[in-house]
Every structure is written in C-alpha cells, then in structure tokens.
Amino acid sequence: MARNTGHTGPRQELSTVEAKLVRKLDWAILPVLWVMYWFNYLDRNAITVARLDGMEEELGISSTEYVTCVSILFGGYILGQIRSNMLITRVRPLWFMAGAMTLWAVVSTLTAVTKDFKGLLLTRFFLGVTEAPFYPGALYMLAMFYTRQEIATRISILFTANICGTAFAGLIAIGVFQMENAAGLAGWRWLFIIQGVITFIVSAASAFVLPNEPQNTRWLTAEERQLAHSRVASDTVELHENTSTWRGLLEASRDPRLWVLIFMQHFHMGASNFKNFSPTIVETLGLTRNVTLVLTCPPYLVSGVVSIA
Q1: Residue 3 has what DSSP assignment?
Q2: Where is the Major facilitator superfamily (MFS) profile domain (predicted)?
Q3: pLDDT at residue 86 above 90?
C-alpha cells in the first residue's frame, strides 16, 4: 500500500489496521503473561502464609531459620538472572518462558515433601533460580511486539499480577487449609501441592499461546506478522548490529536514567520484603488465622489500582 504524504487517507487506514493488531496482541499475549506472573508471586509467597499453619513447628525450624529460607530465594534469583539473561536471546521465547514456569512449578510442589530446615532451604534456593528467568523474559517478549509508546502501559498492567498474587495468597490459603490432615498431610503441604500442580498446568497451556517472534506467530495473519515486525523495527533507536555486548553495556551505563531506575528499584525491593512478614505481623494483633489472612489482602489491592492509575 503506497503512502501519500499529501493525504491522510492511507495513514488513517494504516492506523486502523495497526490499532486492530495491537488489540489482538493485547488479548493474546498480556492475559497469558499476567496469569504466569500471578503464579510466579503466588508460589513465591506461599511460605509466608504456610507459616501461619504450623510449618515452622512441623519442620522444627526457628524464626531465624525461617528468615534464612525466605532470604535464600534471592540468592538463587540473582544466579538465575545472570544465566537467564545470557540465554534469553538464544532460546526460543516460548520455550524459555514455558520451560522456566514448568521448572518452578516442580520445585514449588517439592516444597510439600520437605522434612527439615535443610530441605526447605534447598527448595527455596532453587525456586529463586527457576523463577528468575520469567520477568526479564516477559519484558523481552513485550519489547518484541510493542513500541516504546505502548510498552509502558503494558508493563504497568503486567506488574499488577505480582501485586494481586500477593493479595490473594492469603485468601486462597484459607480454603486450602481446610484440607488439614487429608491423606495425612498438613494444610500448608496441600497449599504447595495444589498451587504447584496448577502452575504446571498453566505452563503447559502457555506453550500453545505465547509467540516466539512476530514473523512466525501462529495466530497472526501474514500481513499482521509483517506489520508487527516492521512497526517495532522502525521504532528502534540507534540499532547497531555490529555493536558488541560490552559496548552496549558501556553505553547503557552512561545513561543517567539507568542509575535513577536502579536507585528506585533498590528501595522498591527493600520495601517489598515487608510482604514476607506481613501475615506474621498482623497475627500479633491477636486475630485468628483466617482473619489475619483476609487482612493481608486489602493493602495490595489498593496498591494494584494505584500502580495502573
């Protein structure tokens, strides 16, 4: 289709086609990534509510050992991030995302069979390793399909998934804890089993929906694939194919906005650790377990609304 810069007709037609494509991407990619990220945080935060169901007592661990198990996840997360960021452009995005989710589903489920501090520590460490690839992978996938003007809104929507995962962890636990002593297992063990199995199912389903790259996305037409590729390619700024990884890293380090972002993220991560102890803190008010779990929900729901607004 030829463009005529003296008329607005062709541009309006292209804009309509592009808007239709963006809506199609929104309905196909965002919901899947949102659900996957929701389980990413739901599985990660299961330990905080399991603590209220007697996990510490059954495993014979102290408060200090519990804190160690919570913290060790981030050690694994750092190692997983380094390796995953090296692989993210070498593995097909679909398998990278679905594969990572499958692995963390297995590790999360195995938490149900831990017998002591050592077992819980190991499962938490490897949960961090296996969960680490998801978030950078999700951002990489969004960057393949959305322009700079569009991606900020999509990241904001995606980010609400981790907030909602934290918010609903307690509400889900209330129901699952009713299975106490079913098959001779404690309620907190059932929590890890059920959430882990559902996470595994979601990972398998995501393999049929998530795309690899615009040029070979199954659910796009040939014209839509070309448009999806060309519009992001034209939006790319200062793309130098021969630039080395180290040269790119050096250029990024000179951008003051990167350091502002690092500064913000540093304080965000420090504050977000509060969620690992919020159920226990609320419980000290003398409330029942179920009321405590309910009260952990509202702050994060408000946070989710504010993050989009």
Answers
A1: -
A2: 29-309
A3: no
The predicted-structure confidence for 159-183, as pLDDT tens digits, reads as follows 899 889 888 999 999 999 999 999 9
**Whats the size of the chain, residue-wise?**
309
Both tokens assigned to 195: 């959430």
> Measuring CA to CA, how many Å separate 240 from each of 123, 142, 250, 263?
42, 21, 14, 28
pTM for the full model? 0.85
Query: Could you tell me how far CA 46 lies from the centroid of its own chain?
Result: 15
Query: Is residue 189 classed exposed, middle or buried when 0-12, 13-18 and 19+ CB atoms within 10 A define those classes?
Result: buried
Residue 68 in 3-state DSSP? Answer: helix
- The one-letter code for the residue type at 197 is V
- What is the spatial distance between Cα 163 and Cα 307, in angstroms, rounded to a whole number? 9
Distance CA 66, CA 78 (A): 20
Measured CA to CA, the distance from residue 165 to residue 44 in angstroms comes to 9
- 220/255 Cα distance (integer angstroms): 36
